[in-house]
Structures are given as structure tokens and as C-alpha cells.
Design a protein that fits this description.
With about 190 residues, this protein is mainly β. The chain is built from one helix and nine strands; from the N terminus they run αβββββββββ. It has a single domain, classed as Immunoglobulin-like, CATH 2.60.40.2550.
Length: about 190
């Protein structure tokens, strides 16, 4: 019995460690009810939003149209950062999932498996993959492209939440910076 327990714990630990290598853990977007990689201490040495980074979020409309697909481009620049990451989600005014988030074609982005946070949130989460953490040069992240299909009803505004990581690449919890951004997009008036 003891050997089965040890094997089970070893497997669970290895799954947990590999999941972090593949992207931010679920519910790390900074949205209502979520944490960030800074507050969960994955990258916890520096205060949230405490350094100077240039964050670019393009493609969000001023108002959204029902069922329309929007391509959103994300990028972060911070001097001396060597690796980067992000997580995003979208919620209605009650904090529930709204619309459909997907990685854009060919992007080094993944949709997190909802089974890993079942019962804690109904939102979808997109994050980088291991292949999507290196930018074209030091201090510049990859360009991540995601898509959001607006819901078929325009009854609620959509709140977009983004968390970004600008890391030093030392494979430790030290020296990295986490940034959050949020934007509310109202529906188009009929």
C-alpha cells in the first residue's frame, strides 16, 4: 500500500510540475475570483504591476457585435526580460464566461483543460505554450494572437482580463514581473 501511495504522489507531482512548464495555471488571469502568478507565488518576488513594461493589446473593438469573431494581438516589452507568458479570459457582468476564446491559427497558445478547474469557474482560459515564451530578441515577447467570438446575445458587457509575465529566465520564482490589464467592451446597440 505504501508503494502505491508513493507512486501516486510522484505521478501527481510530475503532472503538476509539467503543467507549469506548459503555461500559466488555470485561473491566473487576475479576473474577479482569480489569482495571478504573482499572488500565487509562482513569480512572487516583485509587486504586481511594479515595473515599467510596454503592454500592447490590439484588436478589441469599442463595442462588440453579436457572433462576430475578433482577433486580438498581445505583446509585452520589458528591458532585460528573457522569457514571457500570458493568460486571458472573458467574463460577463456577473463573472461568468461570455463568448468563445480560441487560439488563433498557428499560435503558440493553448486553451486550458476545464477539467483542471471544474467547479471553480466556468470561464475559458488561454495561455502560452512552452514554445511560446521566447520572443524575437531580449526584452520583447512573442506576438500572441487569440480569437474571441462574441456571444449571440448582446445583453451584457464583456470584461477582458489579461495577465502577463516578463521573466528573467533563471527558472526560479525570483526576478520576474507580473502585470494585469482589464478592459470592458459594451455590446453594440441594436
Amino acid at each position: 500500500m505504501r508503494i502505491i501511495t508513493i507512486i501516486t504522489l510522484t505521478l501527481l507531482l510530475s503532472i503538476s510540475l509539467s503543467a507549469k512548464k506548459k503555461g500559466a495555471p488555470p485561473m491566473s488571469s487576475g479576473a474577479q475570483g482569480d489569482r495571478t502568478c504573482q499572488t500565487s507565488k509562482c513569480h512572487g518576488e516583485n509587486e504586481l504591476n511594479s515595473d515599467k513594461a510596454k503592454i500592447t493589446i490590439e484588436g478589441l473593438p469599442e463595442v462588440y457585435t453579436a457572433n462576430k469573431i475578433y482577433e486580438i494581438t498581445l505583446k509585452i516589452e520589458q528591458a532585460d526580460a528573457r522569457v514571457f507568458g500570458f493568460q486571458s479570459t472573458v467574463a460577463d457582468k456577473n463573472g461568468n464566461s461570455i463568448g468563445i476564446l480560441t487560439p488563433a491559427e498557428g499560435a503558440d497558445i493553448q486553451l486550458l483543460d476545464a477539467a483542471s478547474y471544474l467547479g471553480k469557474s466556468d470561464r475559458s482560459y488561454l495561455t502560452h505554450t512552452l514554445a511560446g515564451i521566447n520572443g524575437p530578441k531580449k526584452g520583447v515577447s512573442p506576438t500572441w494572437k487569440i480569437q474571441w467570438q462574441a456571444p449571440d446575445s448582446t445583453a451584457s458587457a464583456s470584461s477582458f482580463y489579461f495577465a502577463f509575465n516578463a521573466g528573467n529566465g533563471n527558472k526560479k520564482k525570483t526576478g520576474d514581473y507580473i502585470y494585469t490589464r482589464s478592459m470592458v467592451i459594451p455590446p453594440a446597440k441594436d
